[in-house]
Input
Amino acid sequence: MDFGGIKIESPLFLAPIAGYTDSPFRRVARAHGAGLVVTELVSAVGLVRRGKKTLELLRFDDSERPLGIQLFGNDPAVMGDAAASAGRYGPEFIDINLGCPARKVCNTGSGAALLRTPELVYAIVRSVRAGTSLPVTAKIRLGWDSGSMNYAETVAAVREGGASAIFVHGRTREQKYGGMADWNAIAEINAMAGIPVAGNGDIRSFGEAHARMKESGCAAVMIGRGALGNPWIFSGKEPSIGEIISQISGHCELMEQFYGSYGVVLMRKHLTAYIHGMKNASHVRSRLVHAVSRSEVMSVLAELHE
Ligand SMILES: Cc1cc2nc3c(=O)[nH]c(=O)nc-3n(C[C@H](O)[C@H](O)[C@H](O)COP(=O)(O)O)c2cc1C
Output
């Protein structure tokens, strides 16, 4: 999939997962072949006010490229200013969040709440386009709820506003992460969008990623939860226990470099994802999530070899 003149080597993209797809994990995903990565959602208001926590989210390494910075907000002017600021960090593109179902985001009229007002979606995309010379994308859901599946209007607003590509999570806001993504609707969107579409939702393996692309006609797919603890999903490789352990070690090292000693604590949720489904996992899990240093993590993991 090509858009905005960005060089993209694989049609399997990493979907943003707040709290997980930070700079270290994005590097891991790219090293395993993810075609592009996107930051977790960044508040446009926070960015314009130069909030410390917001600016932290914008840190990335060159090895993550191609990278998009994802913005959320509800005010076209603020979104345009935020896009201008985000652009100065040097990403390949700016993505607009039109899908976050969280109450604290939707209550401010941002994220998935915008799906209810396509004219505001149009105004936001236009303003973001005006604020930056970078390509602009939008990540949408199918609609607010089953009674308002207005994706045709949302897609038209995004395209007419000047976006270069669309990422579609095949659920409504009402579904949050429950039920199954509707890949028929994703195929329909791909057929009518007029700009490149990457489908997203429930992909759990490399084979499934390619099957979804074929069935839906999408030139690319985005993978979120299926990549946690399994960055091999991007290459289709079956890792040995030794490779999993060495991947964990490398990831832990990146976490320490990025966050300091607290990185090991932040690594815990990844550790449980990496060992999920391993046959000796239950023996080591509790000690693993209490480990306070990388060497402790590694010595616990050594038992998995036994
Ligand atoms: C904990 C969590 C956090 C998420 N954070 C974001 C986010 O910051 N921005 C976004 O566009 N989507 C976010 N998503 C949605 C994912 O990008 C993706 O659309 C969704 O999980 C479906 O894809 P999957 O089944 O491959 O995970 C999040 C999902 C989860 C479960």
Q: What stands out?
A: The chain has a mean pLDDT of 96. The first helix runs from residue 23 to 31.
